[in-house]
Amino acid sequence: MSHSDELTKEQRGLPLQSPSYPLRLSRRTVLRALVGAGAGVLLTACGGDRLDPFASNGQPTPPPSRSADEAAGAAQPQSQVDQATSQSGEQADGGVELPEPLVYIIPSPASQGQTVLVLIEAPGAHAASLSWQGQAFSLLKSEERFLGFFGIDANAPVGPQSLGVAVWGPRGEQLLWQETVIEIESVEWTIDNIQIDGPNAALLEPAIRRADETARLPFQSSLTPQLHWLGVFDPPSDGQITALYGEQRSFNGGPIEEYHTGIDFGGETGSSVTAANSGIVSWAGRTRRRGNGIIVDHGAGVFTGYYHLSEVLQTAGEVVEQGDLIARMGATGLATGPHLHWEVVVRGITVNPLPWLQLLEFPDPFQELNPTNALTSTNLAQGS
Ligand SMILES: [Zn+2]
């Protein structure tokens, strides 16, 4: 398992948010210390109490003179857009001129099952938020960059979808409010008919699936305003991948009612299951469909889930490092044999895990950005 992530950021020359971050300590030590202190690990909430963008519910705290709706990215009257636009480049605190924020949506267009990364280069800015499908959430700050992720469901509607971004300056003034469109493209997922016999057939009941999802939802849909990892995720098992994400599934010849929300690794009962990346265990328990499971919160709305385990070796609240042994493979719940079902959840949506393993393009929040790829006024429509 790779532990080279700490080098990655150094090599890229990206200074850490906190200059006192002790790189030589193990990630676990640092995480424990910082989590205990309620601080971010690599990315911290902005210091100002007045405009803490990371409210507990993940909603941006509005600047003092603005309404909650505006701060949450709701559409504004044209006069306010003009005002906001006119503030770009104006003198901020200390007479420093703030450059216009550069907004990157990666990738765009995006396809079903994909993770979308939003990066905003906004030197001197204090907070930024994203509005997507009726949800608004704060972007995390790393030096002069704001970052955030959202997921596209495997069966999400295709076509153009609107997306809004807002950026605030140090005095709570709005530097940017822009709305743009991201095109969602369809993917032809494979179709599989799975035969489930014996006592497990009772677990196909939709009510059981819904109860299972409801039980796990609160532990994989919050927005922890820290990023607990830096680099590519590791496969959580040494086993072969036996099923891919997105596969449209029918059971016992019935209609297609669900898709495969993660990837499966084959193996033997008792084989090691390791944390795909560093984070904090948000849930460890058992549901009827998924059997024994564990969910790790990696921060920034990114979670990984591990299911059908024979044994869970961590409890909620534990800090885990990439590669740590967290569980053992099994066949609990609705499983036809021992395997690990592993999924990646981004802002509550199960996404294709392959990019997170860099088997497809990794959604790297620290990647180099080319200003020519930033959205421009021609593809950024002003809010109306
Ligand atoms: Zn699976």
| Termini separation | 49 Å
Number of domains: 2
Shape: globular
Helix content class = 10-25%
User: What is the CATH architecture term of the largest domain?
Assistant: Sandwich
Tell me which ligands are bound: zinc ion
Q: What composes the largest sheet?
A: 8 strands, antiparallel
Q: Strand tally, please?
A: 24
Describe the structure.
The structure is a single chain. The protein has 384 residues and is mainly beta. The chain folds into two domains: 40-187 and 365-382, Sandwich (Immunoglobulin-like); 191-352, Glucose Permease (Domain IIA), CATH 2.70.70. 11% of the residues lie in helices and 33% in strands. It contains five helices and 24 strands. The strands form five sheets. Strands 11, 14, 16, 17, 18, 20, 22 and 23 form an eight-stranded antiparallel beta sheet that branches. Strands 2, 4, 5, 8, 9 and 24 form a six-stranded mixed beta sheet that branches. The longest helix has 11 residues, at 206-216. Bound molecules: zinc ion (ZN).
Could you provide a short overview of the structure?
The chain has 2 domains: 40-187 and 365-382, Immunoglobulin-like (Sandwich); 191-352, Glucose Permease (Domain IIA), CATH 2.70.70. Helix content is 11%, strand content 33%. It contains 5 helices and 24 strands.
For this entry, give a set of tags.
5 helices, 384 residues, disordered N terminus, binds zinc ion, 6-stranded mixed sheet, single chain, 2 domains, mainly beta, globular, Glucose Permease (Domain IIA), Immunoglobulin-like
